Amino acid sequence: MGSRLPRTACLLRLIALCILLTHTAAYFGLTGREPLVFLPGPISNDAPNGKAHLKQCEQMTLTRRQKRLCRREPGLAETLRESVRLSLLECRYQFRNERWNCSLDGRGSLLKRGGEEWSENNMQVPRRLRFLAVRTCWKQLSPFHDTGRLLKYKYDNSVKVLSVTNAATGETELAGPRRHRQNLRTTDLVYLEDSPSFCRASRYSGGTGGRTCAKDTTCQSLCCGRGYNTAMRLTSLSCHCQVRWCCHVECQTCVREEEVYTCKNA
């Protein structure tokens, strides 16, 4: 798995297609050469108005066209900031069993560079209908988990490519393995560098020591062959639930003892 992880950077940039950045900018995702840069300050959920809104647009690293759009649409900057938070949560969910689990603690902003194009130019979204006096159509994004699952699938099937110079034109091109060269599409994920293994704590990640794993499925890979510790834990859960008339469910709270497996430290 370690040799396939550099795709993290390209996957997360796609997750964040509609995300622009705040003034405390940092990379979203990792490559083999970029260290973690921890930046202070949580993302604020307060929606500024008037001059505060315009100031927030100016603080983002945007093209002139994007800044004009940001200034023209009140609330757009705040929506993009919220999308940073949602994408981080989805990233952590999709990578919960990976050695790098989207651990970006301490970063107030997740992208160093905004997308060159806005999401409406890159993302096809379903149309829904509603009925008023006339039939009206509008664009709507698919559920966030659906997008996350699709991008994780593309990540798992991404292809490593090389950066080569075309002798005839002098331009830099991407070349994949011969068996994939004819089958690659513009919607496929490709990557240039292998990521670190993320097994040990380093400037790239906190390592996998202490991570919770599943004994029969993820412990071997997640713990990097170091083994795991077993401990007993008491957990509370709802049990003996009954439906009461009308539309009310009553449950008891049961305590269960279960085994918990955590990766040993390096």
Automatic annotation (TrEMBL):
Signal peptide as annotated in the record: 1-26
GO biological process: animal organ development; canonical Wnt signaling pathway; cell fate commitment; neuron differentiation
Compartments (UniProt record): Secreted, Extracellular space, Extracellular matrix
Major place of residence: secreted
GO CC list: extracellular space
Alphabetic keyword roster: Developmental protein, Disulfide bond, Extracellular matrix, Glycoprotein, Lipoprotein, Secreted, Signal, Wnt signaling pathway
Domain of life: Eukaryota
Single GO molecular function: cytokine activity
Known function: Ligand for members of the frizzled family of seven transmembrane receptors.
Family of the protein in this entry: Belongs to the Wnt family.
Protein name: Protein Wnt
The species this protein was found in: Mugilogobius chulae
